[in-house]
């Protein structure tokens, strides 16, 4: 990663502001980073937020916008591989709510600050960590309602846990592409990218696959899994060839891959955006 430029002076969520579901996890992550890089002391701050709690997500985002003068990089990497039958208090799949709706809300609330930063400093990027699992989503999916968000909730088929996760990752890519289209229409030069970091040995993967399974043991380490998100967030190549990378799906270790036909559907992306706005608007009103 020696090709990455210095990020000194920039503000980033994840690489400078460390997001986690609670303060304890955020501080634990910061502690581990400081052990490896003591010079980061004073430059890393916790940002405690549970993406499944939409009212809290909105508050955290608005507090950040009120407090900070710039935001150069936003990396949305939080996700869960929860059971598809779990529902939150609004009747929404916890997996889909956390992996897509929370990310959608957080990003759109931060857009005014991201736009301001792009106008004043340039080089702003929004990076959404998706997955190649999206290739396995059935071709007849829609995003018209909460019922559609819960499409893969049958307790009778264990494969639904994986498909619900894949469904949420499809939403991440569609959101990225629709965000990029909207930014382009407004002539705003922010780059939006989605990516697959590879199969990574995270805690969630360990619970899903089993830590003793060969699949889990063959996964990338978390450090190696961070390479592609870092590349997407900071490497100069996407900025140098904006037409090629705007809205693109990045693959390890910085290559491009065609996402599924579903993931490239303009109509489906617009449908997802509109329904996400409507559902969250009803919750947050």
From TrEMBL:
InterPro entries: NAD(P)-bd_dom_sf, SDR_fam. Keywords: NADP, Oxidoreductase. The keyword Oxidoreductase applies. Signal peptide: none annotated. GO terms for molecular function: oxidoreductase activity. Belongs to the short-chain dehydrogenases/reductases (SDR) family. This is Putative short-chain dehydrogenase. The lineage of its organism: Eukaryota, Fungi, Dikarya, Ascomycota, Pezizomycotina.
């Amino acid at each position: 990663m020696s090709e990455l430029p210095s990020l000194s002076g920039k503000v980033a969520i994840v690489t400078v502001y460390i997001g986690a579901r609670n303060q304890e996890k955020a501080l634990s992550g910061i502690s581990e980073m400081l052990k490896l890089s003591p010079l980061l002391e004073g430059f890393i701050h916790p940002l405690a937020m549970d993406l499944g709690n939409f009212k809290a997500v909105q508050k955290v985002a608005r507090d950040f916008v009120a407090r900070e003068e710039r935001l150069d990089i936003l990396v949305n990497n939080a996700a869960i591989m929860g059971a598809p039958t779990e529902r939150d208090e609004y009747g929404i799949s916890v997996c889909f709510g956390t992996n897509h709706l929370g990310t959608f809300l957080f990003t759109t609330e931060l857009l005014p600050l991201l736009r301001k930063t792009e106008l004043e400093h340039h080089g702003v990027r929004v990076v959404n960590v998706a997955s190649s699992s999206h290739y396995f989503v059935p071709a007849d999916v829609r995003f018209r309602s909460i019922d559609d968000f819960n499409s893969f909730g049958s307790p009778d088929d264990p494969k639904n846990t994986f498909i619900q996760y894949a469904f949420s990752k499809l939403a991440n890519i569609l959101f990225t592409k629709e965000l990029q289209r909207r930014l382009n229409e407004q002539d705003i030069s922010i780059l939006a990218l989605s990516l697959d970091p590879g199969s990574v040995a995270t805690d969630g993967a360990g619970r899903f696959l089993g830590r003793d399974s060969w699949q889990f043991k063959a996964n990338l380490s978390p450090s190696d899994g961070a390479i592609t998100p870092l590349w997407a967030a900071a490497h100069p190549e996407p900025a140098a060839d904006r037409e090629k990378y705007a809205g693109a799906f990045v693959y390890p270790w910085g290559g491009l891959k065609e996402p599924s036909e579903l993931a490239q559907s303009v109509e489906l992306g617009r449908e997802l955006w509109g329904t996400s706005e409507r559902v969250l608007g009803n919750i947050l009103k």
